[in-house]
Amino acid sequence: MKLAVLVFVAVALVASASAVHKMPLFPRHELERSVLSEAQAYLSQRYTARLTGANEPLTDYKDAQYYGPISLGTPAQDFTVILDTGSSNLWVPSSKCKITELACDLHHKYNSGKSSTYKANGESFAIQYGKGSLSGFLSEDDLGIAGLTVKGQTFAEATHFPGITFIVAKADGILGLAWPTIAVDGVVPPFQNMVSQKLIDEPVFGVYLSRDVNATVGGEITFGGYDSKYQAGDFHWVPLTNQTYWEFALPKITVNGKTIATNVHGIADTGTSLIAMPMAMAAEFNSAIGATPLPTGEAIVQCSKIPTMPKMEVTLNGQVFTLTAEQYVLQISAEGKTECISGIMGIALPPQIGELVILGDVFLGTVYTAFDNGNSRVGFAPLK
Question: Which of 146, 238, 294, 307 is 20 to 30 A away from residue 313, measured at CA?
Answer without folding.
Answer: 294
